[in-house]
Amino acid sequence: MNSSTTEKIKIQKSDETRIDQVDFDNLVFGNVFSDHMFECDYKDGVWQNPTIRPYGPLTLSPAAKVFHYGQAVFEGMKAFKDDNGKIWLFRPDQNAKRINKSAARLAIPEFPEDIFFEALTTMVKMDSEWVRPGDGNSLYIRPFVIATQAGVGASPSTEYKFMILMSPAQAYYTGDIKVEIAEHYSRSANGGVGAAKAAGNYAAQFFPTNLAREKGFQQVIWTDANAHEYLEEAGTMNVFFRVNDKLLTAPISDRILDGVTRKSVIALAKKDNIAVEERRVLVSEIVEASKNGTLKEIFGAGTAAVISPIDAFSFQKRTYNLEKQADSYAAKFKKELTDIQRNRSEDPFGWRFEVV
Ligand SMILES: Cc1ncc(COP(=O)(O)O)c(C=O)c1O
Predict the structure, then answer these.
(1) How far apart are CA 134 and CA 271, in angstroms?
(2) Which of 324, 305, 306 has its CA nearest to residue 265?
(3) Which of 44, 69, 173, 301 would suit a FRET pair with 270, their CA atoms being 20 to 30 Å apart?
């Protein structure tokens, strides 16, 4: 499946940059894109014609299968500029592997990792001015694959487009988040696509998340689809619970995304001698821990916000508030991770990848 192309990436440089029109101090996440994008088509069983060209619209048949059956997967990763102007990616090998794992689940042919890396690094170098230095600033990178074959027969497409877009981002400050624990809707089920970054997983969350928003909660923490007894993950974040000084998080399964931030937090916790249990976490045990005062923190972990502290959760119409901790694990992991990402500390795990 991993049919490669020997073709070099073609480069069509943009005649002018749009960078001067961008207000980097007032970016809305994911709304502005850098000067170039990458595209590569799958046709006749081969990925072909890899091209970097000016960011702009696509022409697709309205019968393209992505529009009808949602055969699409994506990734999210970031580039950072350090205080000396060098640009780094954070664990990009993980995203390269994960997009292919997602693709396999959606019957999409895998994309060659060597072309992925060459495209990624070439584009980041070309649009290096779009990566701003300084706390909180990054270039969010969105690789994705869509089914492009024209035809409304419900079968896997024979043609695809792999693309990469890049969007400058500022600190993703979410404020303290209040979450609702899911008691009716589900994000994923055994044997489903929950572990894939499949586009439809996100569309399916919009409606229940809107209902939660109307009640004053920014996010939903999804629970198992069987009985809504076990805590799983949030919309775009894995979730950690600190009970006394121990961290609990749901194990990876075919319902949960194997988050890069999640696995990085677990590695940091182990290095820092903080106990972590990857096991099924009952809603009832977190409610109980909140009542008896042993629940110290809940936080989300994901590329966009890195670590998001959660300051309240609701379950069965009752809201449980968390007190601020002087020795917050959320704050500690956020600093440790961002220091590694921005080349401000040692990188004992070899997570940083130097682009230029
Ligand atoms: C459903 C879901 N869970 C967790 C995450 C966090 O994963 P990562 O840390 O790799 O960004 C994401 C975001 O990618 C996500 O979409």
Answers:
(1) 27
(2) 306
(3) 173
- What CA–CA distance (Å, rounded) separates 101 from 103? 5
Q: Are 35 and 127 in contact (CB under 8 A)?
A: yes
Report the C-alpha gap between 48 and 46 in whole angstroms. 6
Minimal-distance CA residue to ligand 1 atom 15: 236
Q: Is the CB of 309 under 6 A from ligand 1?
A: no
Is any atom of ligand 1 closer than 6 Å to the C-beta of 261? yes
The rounded distance, in Å, linking the Cα atoms of 26 and 9 is 34
Substitution site in 174, 186, 255, 257 for ligand 1 pocket (most atoms within 8 Å of beta carbon): 257
CA atoms within 13 A on the CB side of 232: 28
State the pLDDT confidence band at 219, using cuts at 50, 70 and 90: very high
Report how far residue 178's alpha carbon sits from residue 226's, in angstroms, rounded to the nearest whole number: 24
pLDDT 10s digits, 153-203? 999 999 999 999 999 999 876 677 999 999 999 999 999 999 999 999 999
DSSP, residue by residue, 215-272: TT-SEEE-B-TTTS-EE-B-SS-EEEEEETTEEEEPPP-TTS---HHHHHHHHHHHHT
User: 24-55, pLDDT tens digit by residue?
Assistant: 999 999 999 999 999 999 999 999 999 999 99
Determine the Cα–Cα distance for residues 143 and 166; give it in Å rounded to an integer: 9
The single-letter DSSP state of residue 186 is -
257 CA distance to ligand 1 middle (Å): 6
Q: Is the distance from the beta carbon of residue 194 to the nearest atom of ligand 1 less than 6 Å?
A: no
Give the three-state DSSP class for 287: helix
What is the C-alpha to C-alpha distance for residues 121 and 128, in angstroms, rounded to an integer? 10
Whether residue 219 has its Cβ less than 6 Å from ligand 1: no
Sign of CA dihedral 271, 176, 250, 74: negative
What SS3 class is residue 309? strand
User: Which string of b and e fits 64-78 if b means at least 16 CB within 10 Å?
Assistant: bbbbebbbbbbbbbb
- Residue in the structure block whose two tokens are 């993703």: 172
